[in-house]
Amino acid sequence: MEELKMQDKAVVVPGDTVAQGMGFLPSKGTYRENDKIIANRVGLLSVEGKVLKVVPLAGSYMPKIGDRVLGQVSDVLFSGWRVELFGPYSSVLGVKDATNEFIGRGANLAEIFGLGDLVVCKIVNVTSQKLIDVSLRGPGLRKLKGGRLIKVSPMKVPRIIGKDGSMVSMIKQATGVNVVVGMNGMVWIDGTPEGEIVAVETIDKIQNEAHQPGLTNKIKEFLEQKTGKKVEPRALAEGE
Amino acid sequence: MPYPKRFDGRKFDETRPIVAKVGVIPRADGSAMFKIGNTVAYAAVYGPRNLHPKFMQDPKTGILRCDYNMLPFSGHGERVRPGGGRRAREISMVTENALRPILDLREYPNTVVDVFIDLPQTDAGTRCAGITAAAMALADAGIEMKDMVAAVAVGNVQGSIIADLTYDEEQNKTETEGVADIPVAFMPNSGKVTLLQMDGKVGRAELKKALELGREVCKKIAEIQKAALRAKYMGESQ
Fold first, then answer.
1. Would you call B187 exposed, middle or buried from its count of C-beta atoms within 10 A (0-12, 13-18, 19+)?
2. Res. A239: pLDDT tops 60
3. In chain B, which residue's Cα lies nearest the Cα of A154?
4. CA distance B46 to chain A (A)
5. CATH fold group of domain A68-144
């Protein structure tokens, strides 16, 4: 007997039987026990044909190759820097991947990136033991100066970015602040004090209402009402 | 002397009133409160995060570290000295053992998941309340777990098999007949036992009966745990 026990988009918690029968396939966030498929984390059930997976609603950041993250330099090493990623693991930024400029032998690396500096970087390698290499070579990757840093749940980052960056672009248009969102859940905001406040409020709102339908329109109205400017969701160019 | 009726008038298989809440500690990665009668347990989960001292790190898997702590004026009688003692050490360990079977931290080598359990008010059954709260907090932290864990104390008070003993019931022994206090934890789906301790004396038949009772009660508690988790995330997703 094959039967779906819970509906698509339902909130599941660990130990919930989501389906019964060998016709279903467990994917991320679920596992099979005999003929049952059971959820193993809190999230929203997603039914794609016969494939069942759980879209997580909570959790810590798992580094992935290609992710753009926000990190903070926490140590200066022999030939690079240790970059804290605000998750279970920290990463290493090698001298080779740091800048396009020439760094001579015996140069003082602390003069290039000091302790506490914020960088937008890209994850280039992750080993099975979670040793992470990051790089600053690429469009939009740089050291950040000034601004403020806020933390959001890494699971909600896709909603904050929006489709093709539409949410971030709306915040930028309405408030005029510069926003950088890292996949590790760190968001950097830089602009006028008033603009920054509105941006922080908006990000909080997106976080709290992350899984509601029609979120883009709601945020659009919210921003227009807060700032009195017209905003239009549009895609962001790469590295913006 | 039999124990035909419970001090607070409950049925033998009835627990004290339960309140469960998830997400009570904003700065923790996951948190939960579990209140059963006058016993209140708060659990806060941090991590997976970097583990120090480094020699404790395990390159094969992340580890679980629990800390059970009764607050100074939480209990009956004398003030509990802060800072943990032999009893707290033992309970921290059994809590760890009760929770580890549901977790798989191999995805997080060299890290730790810290679970802090604090009891501001107690009336027996603290390790069970702590484990129950911790299971909810772990789920709230988004950690993958194959099942929940629910715990309850069952016991034999002068021949009566009862669930969820209070402090008075634990103390209710006479010269001829003792009290057996048996904290048990179950994984509700598979029905496997993850905690089984005993204080006192019990016969084989009574123990079997008590465990059966514990299993049934834990299933009910697990439903409450799941409902509490769902309540938090339903609110967020609607």
1. buried
2. no
3. B142
4. 10
5. OB fold (Dihydrolipoamide Acetyltransferase, E2P) (2.40.50)
ipTM: 0.90
* Mutation choice for A interface testing from B114, B144, B145, B232 by most A CBs within 10 A: B144
Say if B30 is an interface residue toward chain A (CB within 8 Å): yes
CATH of B18-237, one of 3.10.20.30, 3.30.230.70, 3.40.1360.10, 3.40.50.720: 3.30.230.70
Contact B189 A15 (CB under 8 A): yes
Give dist(CA B221, CA B13) in Å, integer.
13
Separation between Cα atoms, residue A186 and residue A151, nearest integer Å: 5
pLDDT in tens, B135-160: 999 999 999 999 999 999 999 988 88
* Interface contact flag, B59 A129, Cβ < 8 Å: yes
Topology adopted by domain A148-227:
Ribosomal Protein S8; Chain: A, domain 1 (3.30.1370)
A-chain residue closest to B48, CA distance = A88
**pLDDT tens-digit readout, B45-93:** 998 999 999 999 999 999 999 999 999 999 887 888 888 899 999 999 9
CATH 2.40.50.100 fits A3-56, yes or no: yes
Contact B12, B28 (CB under 8 A): no
C-beta atoms of A58 and B230 within 8 A: no
Per the structure block, which two tokens stand in for B176? 């001829």
Residue that wins the pLDDT comparison between A212 and B44: B44
Chain B partners within 8 Å of A44 (Cβ): 237
Per-residue tokens: B123: 């009336």
Q: Where are the domains of chain A?
A: 3-56, 68-144, 148-227
Provide mean pLDDT across the span A195-212.
Answer: 89
> Strand A132-135 and strand A90-94: pairing?
parallel
A151-188 pLDDT per residue, tens: 999 999 999 998 888 899 999 989 999 999 999 999 99
Q: Which of residues 140-169 of B touch A (CB under 8 A)?
A: 140-148
Residues within 8 A of B (CB atoms), A 85-144 only: 88-90, 128-130
Residues in A closer than 8 angstroms to B233, CB to CB, are 11, 13, 42, 57
Residues of A in contact with B185 (CB under 8 A): none
